[in-house]
Write a structure and sequence with these properties.
The complex is a heterodimer of chains A (166) and B (652). By secondary structure, chain A is α/β, with parallel strands linked by helices. Chain A has 7 helices and 5 strands. Chain A has a 5-stranded parallel beta sheet with strand order 2-1-3-4-5, sandwiched between helices. The longest helix of chain A is centred in the C-terminal third of the chain and has 20 residues. Chain A is globular. Chain A starts with a helix and ends with a helix. About 8% of the residues of chain A have low confidence. Chain B is 51% helix and 21% strand. In chain B, α13 packs antiparallel against α14. The two termini of chain B are 98 Å apart. The N terminus of chain B is likely disordered. Classes of the chains: A alpha/beta (166), B alpha+beta (652). At the A-B interface, α2 and α6 of A face α13 and α14 of B.
Chain lengths: 166, 652
């Protein structure tokens, strides 16, 4: 029954988070940390820049209200085939995605990268910490600043209370 | 000209008393006539009681005569007329006032008139003669005075010596030369005036002049009083109207100075000639009228031409090396142009008859004269010298300089190449470091993350030891991660250029403290002073340094103790530059004396039990040194440390 409540909650917030990251370990860590931070949106992962572009093109082809269309993109910079900045540049050229926030999520603390990302139209720039607890904090920040406002009505409290019931 | 009685002043007009003359014109004459006739009348009236009406004309003849002598014939005539009037009115007819005139009356009257006129005329002649004489005298006196003035103003001696060789006349110069007034010198003999030594020199010339010869000579005469001097003298004998010699006119000019100047000139000329000879200058003169060049022996020799006859310009031009000829010919033409300055300067080669080439340097000046409305060249004077040796040296130096320049350019090119190669390598290395760091941190993240996840989710499945192992894994991963990051930072400091600019320290520190919770209460107290200076440094590097220093300060404290860091600044000037020292004083665990020296070294970790890579301070030192500053430390175990940086002030 709990699962039904959770899936019901989930189906109401059906727009996914697109996470572009090639490091498998980072994906697992982030997925876990997201759950702990109460982000329940489906996490769709693509492992290189080309795939990210293809995914977005396909989503648009299905229509703007498709459930595949991400409500936010988490973008690493170091990607094979197309780099994160190239993906960013491409997305910002397609004006269908103007409402979609793009948050850079990278281990690079270089000022140059931060600046370039801003220039190309990134909405935010978060640094991937090595410590688990810190990662948890950063994702909490992401949730409050970007996901909650843009991605739907499910609040952490609703999900937590749904869990607590079980 | 009478030499006697020449006073200094202009002679008074001696004729002034006698006759007044007709210079007053009609009025004068009338006045004189009136006075004379009145005199005559008075006299006549006095005679009346004695002679009655006889001798009526008696006193009037003298009156007319006087009038004419004093006033000229006009006055005489007027006097005659007046006398006639008086006689005719008061004294005729002789027989008595009421009687008619008889023949003798008329006769007497008319003849008196005629006689009166004749007397006037004759006396008038006399009067005129006397006047002329007086005028002549005045003229003479005037001329005498003029002459005196003239001779006195002449710079030489002007004098007249009589046959007895005594001075009859002397101008003022004699007074200056011989120190006595003229009056005392006059009529003295020559030896007495000029001195015996001078006289013996002059005597032969004087003798010749006395014999009638006009003598002109230059001599060195040992005059008394004024001293020996060179003189240019002329003795001109003076003859009387009958041809006899009556004396000698003497004219003496002092030419001592001129002689001296001439001597000096001669000397200088000799010196110059000598100098030109010694220096081996050739000198030449180009006469534009004859279009010929006269060259000195040396000059002709320079051009390989025979000295002696003046040569044409073409001959000289022929001698000039054909490569230089055109240019030199042009320069010559320019210097002959009246609108220019007339200067000529050239260095050119000369082809000697034997085939040798010689370098010659010439300088000349052309002088112009006005001919009607235009100027034309008259004369060119110049000098030339052999500069072959110098030219050789010049050329040698020039070649050497060219070679050196070439070498330098080559060197610079090599340096540029190497530098760009080096820069490329540095960029590559940086890029490599970044990529490497990034790739190394990913697995470290995984290690740390997963071991933490194990700790969180599977703690129950592990015993004490197991949990301990996990903790150690996580910690090790974290340490390695920090090391990797620090290593990257350090390598950046080494590899990158650090452009320096004024940096506001206060703003930097404030920003840093606000960004890190570990620098704020309640975790730590960082005390900033009210003011901090601007330093000359690199913003990013300074951020790194301060971060390292502050992190160390709050980290290395006694467990349980509240970290307290005090930041202070000092300022001073040395050698014209302003410096700043920043002190970071903490209440940490302190450093042993023996280890103080090593603390800024790479990988030096002095305390176990505190996390650290050992790179932090090494990075600080490297960065500060790259910003042209210094670092240092003072510390005592248990009493905290003072880390300091010294940098140049960034304030203008």
């Amino acid at each position: 029954m709990i699962e039904e409540i959770i899936s019901a909650a989930e189906s109401r917030t059906s727009r996914p988070v697109l996470y572009v990251e090639d490091e498998e370990n980072d994906v697992i860590l982030v997925r876990t940390a997201m759950k702990r931070a109460g982000i329940d949106h489906p996490l769709n992962v693509v492992t290189d820049g080309r795939q990210a572009v293809d995914y977005l093109q396909a989503a648009v082809a299905c229509g703007m209200s498709s459930s595949k269309l991400p409500c936010i993109v988490l973008l690493d910079l170091n990607l094979p085939r197309l780099s994160g900045l190239e993906v960013l540049e491409w997305v910002r050229k397609q004006h269908e995605f103007d409402a979609m926030p793009i948050v850079i999520f990278t281990s690079s603390e270089l000022e140059a990268d931060r600046v370039r990302a801003r220039q190309l139209g990134a909405d935010d720039y978060l640094v991937k910490p090595s410590d688990m607890f810190k990662l948890w904090e950063v994702l909490g920040l992401l949730r409050d600043k970007w996901i909650a406002p843009h991605c739907g009505t499910a609040s952490p409290r609703q999900v937590a209370s749904a869990r607590a019931v079980s | 000209m009478t030499p006697e009685g020449m006073g200094k002043q202009k002679p008074a007009a001696r004729w002034a008393v006698f006759p007044f003359g007709t210079n007053g014109g009609f009025r004068w004459s009338l006045a004189i006539a009136l006075v004379s006739v009145s005199g005559g009348l008075l006299f006549r009236v006095a005679l009346d009681p004695v002679v009655g009406r006889a001798l009526i004309y008696l006193t009037f003849y003298p009156a007319i005569l006087l009038a004419a002598v004093l006033g000229g014939w006009r006055a005489g005539v007027m006097a005659t007329v007046m006398a006639l009037g008086i006689v005719g009115t008061f004294y005729l007819p002789r027989a008595g006032p009421e009687t008619p005139w008889i023949a003798s009356d008329y006769l007497g009257f008319v003849s008196f008139g005629v006689m009166g006129f004749m007397v006037s005329w004759v006396a008038g002649l006399y009067h005129r003669a006397r006047r002329r004489e007086a005028a002549a005298q005045a003229n003479t006196a005037e001329r005498e005075w003029e002459l005196r003035l003239l001779t006195d103003s002449m710079p030489g001696l002007v004098g007249f010596i009589g046959l007895d060789l005594k001075y009859k006349y002397m101008n003022q110069r004699y007074e200056e030369w011989f120190g006595e007034k003229r009056e005392t010198l006059l009529n003295k003999a020559v030896p007495e005036v000029v001195g015996e030594d001078a006289a013996s020199v002059l005597r032969p010339f004087l003798q010749r002049a006395l014999r009638g010869e006009e003598v002109r000579f230059e001599a060195f005469v040992p005059y008394r009083k004024v001293g020996p001097r060179w003189v240019d003298s002329s003795y001109v004998p003076r003859r009387s109207p009958s041809g006899e010699i009556i004396g000698i006119h003497v004219l003496v000019t002092d030419i001592t100075e001129r002689r001296k100047a001439e001597e000096e000139l001669r000397l200088n000329e000799a010196r110059l000639r000598q100098a030109v000879q010694v220096a081996r200058f050739g000198v030449f003169e180009h006469d534009h009228l004859t279009q010929r060049i006269t060259c000195s022996v040396e000059h002709c020799h320079l051009f390989g031409l025979p000295p002696g006859e003046p040569l044409s310009v073409e001959v000289f031009l022929e001698r000039i090396h054909h490569e230089d000829r055109g240019h030199v010919a042009e320069l010559i033409a320019q210097s002959h142009d009246p609108t220019g300055s007339g200067t000529f300067e050239a260095e050119h080669r000369v082809l000697m008859p034997d085939g040798r080439v010689r370098w010659v340097g010439q300088r000349a000046q052309t002088f112009f004269a006005w001919e009607g409305a235009s100027r034309r060249p008259v004369r060119t004077l110049g000098a030339a010298v052999d500069i072959t040796a110098r030219k050789e040296v010049e050329q040698h130096l020039h070649a050497e300089l060219e070679q050196r320049t070439r070498l330098q350019e080559e060197l610079e090119r090599l340096v540029r190449e190497r530098t760009s190669e080096l820069s490329a390598s540095v960029r590559e290395l940086e890029h490599f470091s970044h990529a490497l760091t990034h790739d190394m941190r990913a697995p470290l993240r995984a290690m740390q993350g997963f071991s933490q996840m194990l700790q969180l989710e599977h703690a129950d499945n592990l015993n004490e030891a197991g949990r301990d192992y996990l903790r150690r894994i996580a910690e090790s991963a974290s340490r390695l991660d920090h090391l990797v990051v620090d290593a990257l930072s350090y390598s950046k400091v080494i590899l990158e250029d650090l452009p320096l600019e004024p940096v506001d320290i206060m703003q930097l520190l404030r920003g840093m403290i606000e960004s890190y919770p570990e620098f704020q209460e309640p975790k730590a107290t960082i005390e900033l002073p009210p003011e901090l200076p601007i330093v000359h440094g690199n913003r990013a590097a300074l951020t790194q340094c301060f971060s390292n220093l502050l992190h160390n300060a709050v980290k290395f404290v006694e467990p349980g103790r509240h970290p307290h860091v005090r930041i202070r600044s000092e300022r001073w000037e040395t050698g014209g530059e302003a410096w700043v020292r920043l002190n970071f004083e903490d209440n940490g665990i302190g450093i042993n004396r023996e280890e103080l020296g090593r603390i800024y070294g790479m990988f030096q970790r002095l305390s176990r039990g505190y996390e650290g890579t050992g790179i932090g301070l090494a990075l600080v030192r490297k960065a500060v040194e790259k910003m042209k500053g210094n670092v240092g430390v003072e510390s005592e175990p248990g009493r905290g440390s003072r880390f300091w940086l010294e940098m140049r002030s960034g304030e203008m």
